[in-house]
Design goal:
It contains three helices and six strands, in the order αααββββββ. It is α+β, with helices and mostly antiparallel strands. Strands 1-2 form a two-stranded antiparallel ribbon. A hairpin with a 2-residue loop joins strand 5 and strand 6. The chain is elongated and about 80 Å long. It starts with a helix and ends with a strand.
Length: 145
Amino acid sequence: MKYLRSFLILAMFMALIISVLSTPSEEQVIDDEDETTILDEEQTTSLRGASRFLALKTRATMTCNKYPRVCRAKGSSGPDCCKKKCVNVKTDRLNCGACGKKCKYGEICCKGQCVNQLSNKRHCGGCGNKCDKGGLCVYGLCSYA
């Protein structure tokens, strides 16, 4: 019991020291006011304020609905534009073959068609993985049984 009491007193003392050291001095308060005036000049819309990094104005991003060539650029996620996003309609599950055509649960998009990779002989376990002639696709494996 004696050790528990001394431990609690020590913990309270450490908490008091931390709270005293973490309160800003008068100089720090003055510096913070200068920063808020700088942020106000940059027209922040948040009530909480923003850091200088977040307060920087960003450039408008190019969307494929206005600039379709964006999707054909190197590093793009796909050559086709669906709902302002670049996608590949040959492999995208949410836009399989055409914009907005979704594959069912458990299906994948292979060459623009929704297929069940667990039972399809031409796409067993993945796109383009064909089973041998006469073999079956079971659980995504050719000739499993």
